[in-house]
Amino acid sequence: MTGLRGVRQVGSAKGAAAGARPGREGTRGHHTGRERGHGRAAALGLDRAADQRGSQALELALLLPVVALLLVVLAVVALAVAELVAVQSLARDAARAAAAGADPVEVVTEAGRGDAEVLVDPPAAGSEAGEVVRVELAVPLRAPAVLGLEHHAPAVATMPVEP
In terms of Cα–Cα distance, which of 124, 94, 129, 96 is closest to 110? Predict the structure, then answer.
């Protein structure tokens, strides 16, 4: 090994201690073509970052309509549930009015729901104190119609007739 300064032998202890891999001693500190992106992808003008950006854009383009549709469905369901709660509250108010001897249809009409079907059983006018008055409402939903169908919200409330 005299006369060859700075050249390491393949697989030597000195090369292994320095962290070099066998067969790669001459490239320490230098990159091969594959490591620097000089392969086929680089020849075609593609690199890994651009490829990842493209796949992220494609994933967004595929998922965005699905997420938008889910948000619209969620909004329609929330409006329908709010409407159902309002109709149930109106049925309780109508039953309370019927139990007190007032006209439950008038209560429903004053609430702005003149389109509701109201059924009172039995009529409170001829009922004795303690009997139960049952009011049924069928109200068309004001929430957006799904698939062009009109939905009705049924609600039932009972109250004891007041003396």
Answer: 94
Q: How far apart are the C-alpha atoms of 81 and 146, rounded to whole Å?
A: 14
- Predicted TM-score (pTM) of the model is 0.58
pLDDT in tens, 31-64: 555 555 555 655 555 566 666 777 888 888 899 9
56 belongs to a structural domain: yes
Q: What domain range is 134 assigned to? A: 48-160
Counting runs of H as helices and runs of E as strands, what totals does the chain give? 4, 3
How many structural domains is the chain composed of?
1
Query: How large is the average pLDDT for residues 66-70?
Result: 95
Is the residue at 93 inside a domain?
Answer: yes
Alpha carbon of 25 to those of 6, 28, 143: distances in Å? Answer: 11, 6, 74
Collapsed DSSP state (helix, strand, coil) of residue 108: helix
DSSP per-residue letters across 51-66 = HHHHHHHHHHHHHHHH
73 vs 25: which has the higher pLDDT: 73
* H/E run at residue 25: none
